[in-house]
Amino acid sequence: MSRYDVERISDNVHWVGVKDWDRRLFDSLIPMPEGTTYNSYLVRGKKAALIDTVNPGFEGELLAKISSVMDPADIEHIVMNHAEPDHAGSLPFMLGKCPKATVLATERGARLASMYYDVPEDRLQIVKDGDALDLGGLTLRFAEAPWLHWPETMFTFLEEERVLFPCDFLGAHTARGLWDDQNDELYFHAKRYFGQIMMPFRKQGQRGLEKARGYDPLIIAPSHGPVHRHPKRIMDLYEEWTEGRTRSKVVIVYVSMWSSTAQMVRTMSERLTAEGVEVAVHELTGADLGDIAKDLVDARAIVLGSPTVLGGLHPMAAYAASLVKALRPPAKYAAVLSSYAWGGGAVKQAGEILGPTGMEIVGVVDVSGPPREAQHQAVAELASELAARVRG
Ligand code: FEO
Fold it and tell me: Does the domain spanning 249-391 belong to CATH 3.10.310.10?
């Protein structure tokens, strides 16, 4: 008897992935309050294919789950939709357990499989966009979907059962629920995930979404989080997010040492709210990066608040500004609030980091010492100007 329950997600597809409830950080960067899953799927026609593997450390669980359905030695194909170790890191182990199996990947994927996992050339099979694999009664169709979010990424589609395996795309970092309707916070997690992982690749995401819609899937089985049996919901959200649809919303990220910057942030947020603008404030010493990324997905403007420290931004504000630049959110406008004691520098550095993003810097308030009435007035006026842009 197997210790594990193996779920069937369609007639001939079993979910053989693992739940990592305890993982709290991804890429040494991304917080995961509910852990994540590494979804692997077993597709069984006359021949069997494994779609992706799992994070190293969970190989035994993957093998036990497969073994409760079939002899792993009979698997003939392992599809590697993506080479990142959370999906492909167990390839060396699985190739040992599946001596007949070849690895199917894009050309770039094959190169990465050799580089990361020493997959021998005679066990690699390159697939191109539109290629099919006949499993005997079942057909896997491959679609190149580069930069979602690595250059080698691809989708796999099981035609007869209309199950799409898009790997990271359309996923979520949460271990809760096998199905989308078993996790009432799924779309909150999916938005965080999109902001952290897919937002820098919105154009590629639009192309990927078009391909996904073209298949008209009944089920979307990503490599993280629950399986979508209501695929329209996640695809509609991705349509909004990849298009960069923003709303009347400002994200304020700030850090303060002796409350001067904090006071200005308060004035800014109060006036923006009074002007009918949604405001999300993140104080950086306690902020969750995932929450910031989520708020950036549909914000129209960003306000950075920082004192000058040693001639530049407070290091936490420099980190946040660099992150905003890297995540490439669709925001069009920015503003900077800053304070200093004897010499500025934070505003200059903020401009250097945010300038290349293409966001219009609507205004700056840089205060020497704590803000007085006149400076609060200047912040309020900047807020009104920003509100007018954002509402427009
Ligand atoms: Fe889930 Fe890009 O790995």
Answer: no
